Amino acid sequence: MLDRTREYAPVGLVPLAWGFTAAAHLGYVGSHALFVAHVVIVGLLVAFGAVSWTEMDTGALQAWRGVIVAGVGVTLLGVASFRVPAVPGGVLRAATVVGWMLLPVRALAVTARRTPAPGLARVYLGAAMASVAGGAV
User: Fold this and answer.
1) Cα 42 from Cα 74, distance rounded (Å)
2) I want to staple 96 with a disulfide (CB 3.0 to 4.6 A). Which of 27, 32, 78, 135 is the partner?
3) Residue 89 in 3-state DSSP?
4) DSSP 93-124
């Protein structure tokens, strides 16, 4: 069961996290819920990284392992943003959002290069370009 969870959970957690972010920007989620969500995500990233570390030491998975490691730091900025005054807090929150937009770019590009199916490689490359565009906006 752990293997299935590690394989499929990230597929659902990523859209859930962005949906939660959108809900926060629309005013449907309060700051305490966002703080708790950041703490939970840090815990999930650390747990997933620890359990999967040795399996992610080559190829495209190594690039994704880098996303997990950097993601812990970026998400901790988000955690800190709820514990500091409003001005630096807003900057830290913005850095967290932009950081998560840009973090997967390299891993998506590496995955595109290593994917044998040309159509799927284009999807990964398109996702990388969309991430760059999102971060720039």
Assistant:
1) 9
2) 78
3) helix
4) HHHHHHHHHHTHHHHHHHHHHH-S-HHHHHHH
Cβ atoms 90, 81 nearer than 8 A: yes
Instruction: Say whether pLDDT at 1 is over 70.
Output: no
Q: Is 58 left (phi over 0), alpha (psi -120 to 50) or beta?
A: beta
Contact (Cβ atoms closer than 8 angstroms) between residue 5 and residue 12 = no
In tens, the pLDDT along 52-61 reads 999 899 999 9
Q: For the chain, which residues make up each domain, given as ranges?
A: 2-103
Q: What share of the chain is helix, strand, coil (3-state, %, to 5)?
A: 90, 0, 10
Model pLDDT, residue 11:
77
d(Cα 68, Cα 104) in Å, to the nearest integer? 9
Residue the block writes with tokens 């812990």: 72
Considering the entire predicted model, what is its pTM? 0.89
Q: Chain-wide mean pLDDT for the chain?
A: 92
The pLDDT, as a whole number, for residue 10 is: 78
